[in-house]
Amino acid sequence: MLAERFSLHCEQIEPFSIQLSEFRVFPQRQGSYTLWLAPEPQAALVRLQALLESVVPDCSDVRRYPSGFTPHLTVGQVEGHATMVAVRTALQALWQTVTFTVAELSLIWRGEPPNDVFHTIRTVKVGK
């Protein structure tokens, strides 16, 4: 089963800390923007993604972007450049850095609308 294969790989790395401090933006189509928090250090998440991709090499779509895989936590989407700047500025001004340890991964699934809410179907421990 896939979860067991992920587990075997994830136990080879140690849990690691991540900080969420800065809001960034992915431009989308026609004046739409995705706001996201940038996890630091990125290198640990890039290594984790590469490790997981080695288990499922046909799931390499995030690596195909011109800048490669960008670790991120999506916060929301906005329309219009001025709105994006205002929302990003307001969020950043109010935000307090969050630090946490990555000690497990959640394998998630969602159905088709209207049942398209993500559900955790299994967790995989990071480290032994």
Describe the structure.
Helices cover 29% and strands 36% of the residues. It starts with a helix and ends with a strand. By secondary structure, it is an alpha+beta fold. The longest helix has 14 residues, at 42-55. α1 crosses α2 (42-55). It has a four-stranded antiparallel β-sheet, with helices on both faces. A two-stranded antiparallel ribbon has the order 5-6. The radius of gyration is 17 Å and the shape is globular. It has a domain at 16-103. The relative contact order is 0.25.
Q: Which features does this protein show?
A:
single chain; 4-stranded antiparallel beta sheet; 128 residues; globular; 3 helices; alpha+beta; 36% strand; two-stranded antiparallel ribbon; 29% helix
The ordered string of helix (H) and strand (E) elements is: HEEHEHEEE
Number of helices: 3
State the end-to-end CA separation: 19 Å
- The number of distinct β-strands equals 6
Topology (SSEs and partners):
Layout: H1 2-10, E1 16-27, E2 32-40, H2 42-55, E3 73-79, H3 81-94, E4 98-102, E5 104-109, E6 119-125
Antiparallel strand pairs: 1-2, 1-4, 2-3, 5-6
Helix pairs in contact: 1-2
